[in-house]
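Lab intake sheet, docking and co-folding queue.

SAMPLE TYPE: protein with bound small molecule
LIGAND NAME: zinc ion
LIGAND FORMAT: SMILES
REQUESTED OUTPUT: full 3D complex as structure tokens
PRIORITY: normal
SUBMITTED BY: R.K., bench team

The fields below were copied directly from the construct record.
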Amino acid sequence: MDSFVHAELILLNGQFHTVDRENPFAEAVAVRDGKFVQVGTEAEVMAYRGERTKVVDLKGHTAIPGLNDSHLHLIRGGLNYNLELRWEGVPSLADALRMLKEQALRTPSPQWVRVVGGWTEFQFAERRMPTLDEINEAAPDTPVFILHLYDRALLNRAALKVVGYTKDTPNPPGGEIQRDSNGNPTGMLIARPNAMILYATLAKGPKLPLEQQVNSTRQFMRELNRLGLTSAIDAGGGFQNYPEDYEVIAELHSKQQMTIRIAYNLFTQRPGHELEDFEKWTDMLTPGQGSDFFRHNGAGEMLVFSAADFEDFLEPRPDLASGMEDELERVVRHLVEHRWPFRLHATYNESISRMLDVFEKVNCDIPFNGLHWFFDHAETITEANIERVKALGGGIAVQHRMAFQGEYFAERYGQQATKQTPPVAKMLEAGLPVGLGTDATRVASYNPWTALYWLVSGRTVGGMQMYDHSARLDRDTALLLWTQGSA
Ligand SMILES: [Zn+2]
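RESULT FIELD (auto-filled):
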């Protein structure tokens, strides 16, 4: 026994879900140098107790491995978190409207009340969204902006006034300003053909001053910690410029105030100039550069704007423009030459087929040769394309967007198609690396447990049974996918 090295930490009297199929549960663990030295019964673990060992009684509570969200817009979300009212998990529209009213009363001018994603009408007992009249009544004077998935935004009269949309405002190229019979904006903005109008309107609102963005990011990381998250891969995001919008996270990193480990991907912001962005960034950064808490992870999820297929299941599937292949090839060629790992947003199999044509062509000239790359989302990918991803050494990062909009998908494509969307079980059967994540904060919720519930139960947030038995994952597999990244 004296050859034993004592543990630094012992956790007793807990329920440990070990994600080890041979030994799925344990009541106690001993930890040293950040590693488990013993997992088992109280007696087995207490053998590692030394004079300086900290012993914690969990009093029967469950302990889980730290979760990793492989697709989160954390850095951008952190800058705005303190500005947002979140409706995650709120059971009724009546509650949601009450929260809106209370928030409007305590929101100082010129700030807005923003509800930016993380909810669906199917979670409410009333099974519907608020009306414009209801939000005008709840907030007569404070601007209110409510984003619903990727399809629309609801603005009250005060918000319409500050953004300046009137009878004379033409529809912007990216969307539609809904009008009444007199031609006046109603307050509803519709993402048709894409979500640009929603984000461009949101961007008109006041930002937080820098020091409050620092606080906001800390609050957001704390909230993620509360849900069991310890690391994330940041997927960049629209209006999230590098290096300008990374000042806050860099400051938190230098002060050692980060409570989530982040690997971050760089997202191009300039349609038509994407290659210039990546040429600039490959000169500035090396993949892996940074520390264990904050390191660079390559390119994406946007590589070229022409390759972005927009996942609004209320609208028909978009066909990507014919020039997409040439633009994507130039960027991917550049990334592979510089050995930059990359990720690419792709919702539909039709888009994925064309992107894979490009990847295979580049791979013939410059072999990928083990370079890490993956698709994000891949809701409708087929088995044939899963095999092509595998042949190129790629992976797939899956998110629970269907938990929030499965009802819409089923209405357009049918229950049968919905049962395999996305085909996570098939990706795993094929041996692909699969990461799980949320794609929060603007569409789905950042709550990893909502995503786990969706994969294990096969149900959407609204309760629709979408996955059949063969497509659902068991709890161990689902949890395991949440404890590893795919990058
Ligand atoms: Zn995406």
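REVIEWER NOTE: Residues 210-226 form the longest helix (17 residues).
SIGN-OFF: pending second check by T.M.
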